[in-house]
Amino acid sequence: MSAAEGDSPLFSPYWYKMAGLAPRLRPGVTVARRLEQGEVWHILSAPEANKHFRLDAASYAIIGACDGRQTLDAIWRRVLDRFGDDAPGQDETIRLLGQLHQADALNSGAAPTLTEFGHRARRVSRQKMLQRLKSPLFIKVPLFDPNALIQATYPFVRPVFSVPGFLLWLACVTWLAVETLANWDRLSGAVLDRALALDNLLIAALVFPFAKALHEMAHGWAVRHWGGEVREFGIMFLVFLPAPYVDASAAAAFRSRGARILVGGAGMMAETLLAAGAMYVWLGAETGMVSALAFNMLLIAGVSTLLFNGNPLLRFDAYFMLSDAIGVQNLAGRSQAWWSAMLHRLGFGLTNWDSPARSRTETAWFIPYHPASYAYRIFLTMTIALFVASEYRVIGLALALWSVATTIVLPLVKGVWHVATEPRVASRRGRAVLVSALIGGLPAAALLLIPVPHGTVAPGVVTAPDAARVSAPVEAEILHIRAQAGDHVEPGQALADLVAPLATTELEVIDARIATARARLADYEVRSTGMDEAAATRAEIGYLIEEQAGLGVDLAGLALSAGASGQFLARSDILVPGRRLAKGMEVGILVPEDSPAQIRVAVPANRIDLVALSPAEVSVHLPGRGFDGRVGHLRTIAPEATRRLEFPALSQPAGGPLVLDPSDEDGRRTAQPFHLAEIDGGVTYGETAIGALVWVRFDHGRSPLAPRLWRMIRQTFLERLAL
Q: Where, by residue number, does the polypeptide cross the bilayer (predicted)?
């Protein structure tokens, strides 16, 4: 709580109700003094409610003077004389005392009625219920006071809170990071294949509470190590999985910033240590229950730390560590309030609207934090919803709808209600309505009406034309090499000399069979009764002559020669003197350097309708050659999608963009289906190489972004939910 900022009203029409009260702090309330960003702050702790308040000098001057003898009006006027414009206004003073009274940190000086207690209880209950509805993935249920348990177990973990303990943790985490990278394909494949299987979920449900219990106990031990107490233990439903939690807010009263940061990081440090142990077991265990337990422990301790506790964009451990490190408390709430203040000041023209920023440093943090946090929450909840929906459609769809309602619809409704009913906006309500309509309408109009370039970019690989393949005409043996790999050859130039003893012998046998058949034919022709036999023999001779001619052609081509000019790309592992070649075995490729290259393109299955129906222009782009493309021509598109990858250059391990299915041991199946298209032109074989990666853009003209975004969202849900 800080003093009044900006030009907030000094006086309040409700002050007469509070002016004569003589409030006092309740026994047990403690105050800690802290210096942050050159300013003195006072941390007021109410142990009964386990609440902590951060007060600036002016606000603390009011609260510190509440001794039960002085009236609130006298205290406030004395603080006003002392601090001047920095003193809190009467409205802010009333709000501050109300918060302290609600936390049982302040006795108002007047006996509250039973009705007041009832209203307060119902109000608190409604606020907690609304908070749970706003955060369907994170719901807390308090259970008991864990202080005795933490005190009893602390001696066993005390050695960890030392320099050797930290170095041991650092070594384990380093080893874990190295092994994770080395086994990434195996890990990611196991996640995609097993994470949502029913039997694996049962194992995860057993492992999850244990991992989180260690996490929360680590917070409690850290608080105990620096002299604090933990008074609340409960169950938190994290993505519908029950997990224990402790309220370590007592660390807020620690004067040492390093102690507060270490308390916030203790849970993550414990989980990463647990993940390192799980990785060690998982790498060495045989497939079975032990391996499954270790895998789930590794997944939970690692992924939850990365996505939730270790991300400062969510109000978990890393968030509080960041707040302490930069000296900006309540970063999330104040960042949101800053954006609200800018909207009211600059947009609605209400220049007296309070801004929570007290310095340029705070403003620099407020500007990016709220948009980034809001976007990440939407991304995370929708990603989890779609991931769950891939196996459990109804649950995933319900979670997605709930997330949209709480992160988009509800804030929008609250914003509209605020503009329509907030008394402080009444003087500028017309402008507020107009600005709000423009804020929502202009982006919508731009998305719906402004056409922008539209295209599909897909990876392709340069392939050799079928006519360019040089292969053995018959079963033969290489005698001499006439052209080396990479040589430029001319039409008719010899590439290699072959010998084919087997084909020569076969030709001699055919010659003998023809001679014998002709002798039989002559004998049948002199007989008057051999007409049928003569006809059959003539057919046999014709067949043998055709086979003789084919072998003759093959033997004539034993000296492999170039059929056209180009670059000869020999297969060095095959084109070796003395190597035996099977009939049809490829020995190299003759690349016509000036001919248009043939390109095979992997078009994503979710874009095939656009590519097949409206390719206004096809352009081919070579890597490293800038944005200027060469005009190509779409020849054919395979009607059926496939996941079988024939060209390794398109896969991620070879530098391409296609993600391989981790469960495929051969490494030839992609994670997503695609259609194979053939492109002619654009580049020549002289400008690129066989097997090289290129990018192909299919132009679809210009169209607004809104229908394209809707199409993407619709396809994503249809694919994930299998509708």
A: 166-184, 196-214, 234-254, 261-283, 289-308, 374-395, 401-420, 432-452
Which of 128, 140, 130, 170 minimizes the C-alpha distance to 316?
140
Q: Count structural domains, the chain.
A: 5
Residues of the chain with pLDDT under 50: 2-7, 111-118, 120-121
Helix (H, G, I), strand (E, B) or coil at 67: strand
pTM higher than 0.85: no
Q: Are 681 and 596 in contact (CB under 8 A)?
A: yes
Q: Are 325 and 35 in contact (CB under 8 A)?
A: no
**Exposure b/e, 42-78, CB count within 10 A at least 16 = b:** bbbbbbeebbbbbbbbbbbbbbbbbeeeeebeebbee
608 and 516 in one domain?
A: no
Same-domain pairing of 585 and 604: no
Q: Domain range for residue 373? A: 330-450
Greatest pairwise CA separation for the chain in angstroms: 148
The whole-number pLDDT of residue 423 equals 87
Q: Do residues 318 and 347 share a domain?
A: no
- The b-or-e profile of 588-612 (16+ CB within 10 A means b, else e) is bbbbbeebbbbbbbbbbbbbbebbe
Give pLDDT tens digits for 29-44.
888 887 776 677 888 8
Q: Is residue 541 part of a domain?
A: yes
Measured distance between the N- and C-terminal CA atoms of the chain, rounded to whole angstroms: 51
Q: Say yes or no: 229 and 377 in one domain.
A: no
The answer as to whether 128 is a domain residue is no
Please name every residue paired with 617 in a beta bridge, in sequence order, or none if there are none: 699
Query: What is the distance between the alpha carbons of residues 444 and 676, in angstroms, rounded to a whole number?
Result: 36
Boundary-marking domain end, from 450, 481, 505: 450
Q: What is the pLDDT of residue 551?
A: 63
Nearest 5°: the CA angle 264, 269, 271 is 110
- 442 and 339 in a single domain? The answer is yes
Write down the pLDDT at residue 14. 76
* Last-in-domain residue among 534, 566, 590: 590
Residue-level pLDDT at 222: 93
